[in-house]
Amino acid sequence: MSPPPPNYEFQEWWNKEREKAYGLLAPAPDDPSITSSAAADAAWAAVEVRTPTTPGAAGKSRGRSPRQLSWLLFLRFHHSAAVLASLPSRLLSLLLTAARRISSAPVSSSTDSRLYRAIRAFLVLAVLLLLLELLAYFKGWHFSPPSYASSAEALERLYANWLYIRAQYLAPPVQVMANVCIVLFLIQSVDRVVLMLGCIYIRVRGLKPVVAMEYEDGDVEGGRVVENYPMVLVQIPMCNEREVYQQSIAAVCILDWPRERMLIQVLDDSDDMDVQLLIKAEVQKWQQKGVRILYRHRLIRTGYKAGNLNSAMSCDYVKDYEFVAIFDADFQPTPDFLKKTIPHFKGNDDLALVQARWAFVNKDENLLTRLQNINLSFHFEVEQQVNGYFINFFGFNGTAGVWRIKALEDSGGWLERTTVEDMDIAVRAHLCGWKFIFLNDVKCLCELPESYEAYKKQQHRWHSGPMQLFRLCFIDILRSKVSLSKKANLIFLFFLLRKLILPFYSFTLFCIILPLTMFLPEAQLPAWVVCYVPGIMSVVSILPAPRSFPFIVPYLLFENTMSVTKFNAMISGLFKFGSSYEWIVTKKLGRSSEADLVSFAEKDPQPQAESRGLHRASSDSGLSELNKLETIKKPGKIKRNRLYRKELALAFILLTASARSLLSAQGIHFYFLLFQGITFLVVGLDLIGEQVS
Questions:
Q1: What's the predicted TM-score (pTM) here?
Q2: Is 274 a catalytic residue?
Q3: Domain range for residue 554?
């Protein structure tokens, strides 16, 4: 009996995998610490398993033999050994980075806040209580608690008094507060599950908004009835957006819409003169190409983005337009964006807003962007899609949406009273009876903040603004003519549950009450509150982004870490603290540029020969000189990673509480406090997100 033919397909696969593994373990060619004999042995090991492959033998493959499976297991072990071998060097590098960060990094400017002072006092108290409990443990008082009457030593009497005070006066209110937070936690969890069930129902049934008409793909100018296309105003508000202004303007200028039916406003609030000149030059280039685009710059820059948009809507020519599309400076709509959104207004006279979903070009840039992608995927696919389909209301995202101008005017226009002008106009339009539509299948490219500093400032504005708005519009909601169910949804679900209760219980329960219960064992948090329910909610939250399942534990820990920022912002907005009105433009890096715009340009209906005239005209007009500013980097503040003292203080509180939990042998609580404390420490040292050398 002849031997079976060799499995060439497996050998070819094996060689590729072996090369990958060898690349992990093999030393660098110029590494002086590796002898020539060792290098030769490693090279021999990489070559020995190779067998010439035959391309035509792919169809002759069969199952893997035991010998081949043994080699496969060896390869996996080889791979794992390489990863384990690199762990000490990675840990050492992390510790060295942390040491340098502590010695040289600037400290965040919010160190003197009320919340930080309270956390610092809590930390001092936790350390003192830990020292007292350690003394009691070594004295044996944990096993036979002393009574005040029988105590001989002063320390023993002190500990006996502490036991009495904590049992009679401290533990009961802490337990009551814990029970309240548990109830709020369960209510918010039920809300999240209901939203997810609604999303599953929409997906299983294939439900989505239906349009009465559709625009065909292709050239909008070629033999088409232009009057069928409504007049659309496109606005691009920006402020010192040096990194992204070109790509956003270019993406909007090549929208597939009749040029005489569309006008683009570049609303520049930049205070950097060089950036102003660059944006003007870019606008003039597109004007010479035949695009109807205008540049506007305000001399009095009040009201931030709301003031910028309100100023643009006051122009006389706006009355000739029916719809307005808004894109922030880092957003790049696809050429068919208007063709996919505008048709939904046909036959829906009570429709005010069509909102598209965001898509992120840098979601895999680092761990911070991956975790943001999980959060925002749930926000768009679950929260906004479900609310848009079932109740025709959700918060406007401030960009990547099309408004009916009549609805804006009917709702009072853009107001400058909060830092969330998008949510403000959405709530007022809803109270006036207008409806919204969310399109989950229409996506607009944008960027995520890559540094923790930028993300923290963004989240502060996003969580302080809703509380400002709730204070201002609460009476208006009660007096409005909408149905009682819509009033209840706005007050209890939209504002209280999702904007106030969520940051309140997540910070109070996991950052304050849980550490307290370690020092006050008479008050308890069940293991299912600490571990099981948060784990289930993390699984629910990550379902819209299934590729992110490997990051489910970092996501859970990071969300609890961000609760201190969100809680602080919520309190600031609710009680009108000064930081609640702070507006800082989120820093962009211009990640989404060349590749996307090249693909867009291929669909540009204008002939390519026209671009030559554009460049010639630009050169003649002197715009080429302005473009030299692109390569000039103005000297400014040196960019550095920072230290965040609130997060660091909470890290030491949680680590102190985890040490105390060891004395009580509370396993789940110990591990949760330990890993949560480490997460706070990593974030406090700014080791998550963009790292600046």
A1: 0.81
A2: no
A3: 113-207+451-586+642-692
